[in-house]
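Narrative of activities, Objective 1.

The group set out to show that a structural description can be obtained from nothing but a protein's sequence at a throughput compatible with the screening campaign. Below is one input-output pair from the validation batch, recorded exactly as produced.
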Amino acid sequence: MDKVNESLCMLGSEDPEARRQAALALGDCPGGEAVAGLLQAMGDPDWRVRKTAVESILRADAADAFDGIFGLLSSEDNAGARNSAAEALVKIGPFAAARLTERFDPADADVRKFIVDIIGQIGDPCGAPALVKALDDEDSNVRAAAVEYLGRMKAPEALLPLIEFLRTEDQWLAFNAAAALGELGDSRAVEPLLAAAEDASLREPVVEALGMLADERAWPFMTAGLKDPVAVVREKAIKGLVQIHAASGGKDALAGSLKESVDNETLDFVASCLEREDTDLQAASAYLLGMLRDKSSVERMARLLLYEETRDAALGALGEVARDGVEPLLFLLNNEEGTVRAAAAFLLGNSGDQRVVSFLIPLLADENGHTRSAAAQALGRLGDRRAVEPLIKLLRDEYEDVQYEAVYALGALSGAELMKHVRLLAQDDDPDFRKNVAALVGMLDGPEAMSVLEALVKDEVAEVRKAAVASLGRCDVDRAMKGIMTAVTDEDPDVRLAAVNALAEMCSPTALEPLVLLTKDVDPWIRAAALRGLGCTGSPAAADHISPLLKDAYGPVRIAAVEALGSAGGAGSAQMLMGYLTDKDPEIRKAAIVALAGFTGEVACGELAALLKDPDWSVRKAAAESVGRLGGPGSAEALREAASSDEDESVREAARGFL
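Output recorded for this entry:
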């Protein structure tokens, strides 16, 4: 018995797992008998069998399977078959949408509803005309579904029919039409929506739709919506006003007009929404209160800082309130929650008001690490030298992120006064403290700072030397080179690696000589890093020093050499890289492909296109991306073949992306 007949027999088994295995096997069998069996399995009582059957039938030719799948939509006594058919058709996609438009007229109401739902879920524009036609359907469920999906599809041809539905006596359809016009996103719907709002039953969807359209013409109407007798309309007005304001180029004018019309009762309602369960409403309410710069709501807005979903909105709102003066935020510095104190410190740092320095300095000793960190950051931005000595103490903080913020804050306060401290601090007994000093000195200018770094490059602790080398990498190339050359021969490989990274960051021909020295290091990771640095020096001689490493015994070094050769460029580099397209190591082949993609005009696309047949999927993916970027004769044809026939989905997607 052949595989198809055996699987068809198994579909009659009482064991659901046997039937599922049969459906799975039929997915690999061509022909009408296999499709017929899978259609049977799509109506199986067991959901696992139905799911497998759907997955299997999708592997069949869509044209062959479509009629059978469509027929299952009429299975009145088998909901599982109908749902499986709908799922399969949605997954088939645009082909199914186009075919379904041809089946709309003769179908009964239930099937027409299925067709609308499937076309809508597929979302392809080719189905929009059928949905517009469905707006005239005799069945209200079909019409309502068509209205909903036309909005989601943003079908421009639906604008006028949807506007007409605003005037229908069918309130449910009018409600859905208003919502759909908002999703459609066409500003021509603004005036019809405003007119439709005269019907009280439509105010809720109209307010929501106008918010989505974010058109300033709706601002007065939305402002009035804050006083609507229906609470849900007021809530949607809050959200809508925020959407309009956020999209506006005249934010101050809109905020000013809103302030003139908002009374205390309205403010109280908006503030009460800060405590609703709807986080979107909470965030919108905070935004609105910030726009109005309502000082009385500061404490309630601050509670939203405790939750990730509303933290950004609360920060923005409190920042707006602070534009009229920082005084309301000062009270938050005594809040029992460290998160609130930290946020207040952050906002005070942004204020630019030097008067807050005396309030922030005590926070450097706060019990909460986040608060100390935020206070350090704020003081760095404010640039007041009164903070220097308290910040130095934070270089010993128990948390590294607090130390980090203290380093950067002190760097922002650089000056002669700070430099006096640094030389003494660099001799501290605590190596962690000296490491922070090394990071700090890299942010300071002048020969005295360089002298301190050169001393720290010789520190007895490797971690301190690493930090000093990293700082030298951020300094002037010529002045830093003496200290870096000391690190190039350091006994610790991590320090030498830091020297490589510092040299690479310089992107200067001056770094060529020490990097060449490091390509001979005993540590292969240092050799690899040095090669990548050579590729960035911009020196014409770089390629000559990279090419010997193409034969290194260590694979990652060879990969780095290929990458570096691509970065360095130069005469002959492209030809040299071409030789590595056939290397036995797929990672080398991939690196060569990526490197060659930068040699526009020097590389024949056909030689890279040959790699679209490589046995390794990652090499084929890299080839598809490089061929797509380079273009050239034959590239489109090669990409089309890969997009349709490659066995790996990521390769097919990469090829499709350039077609």
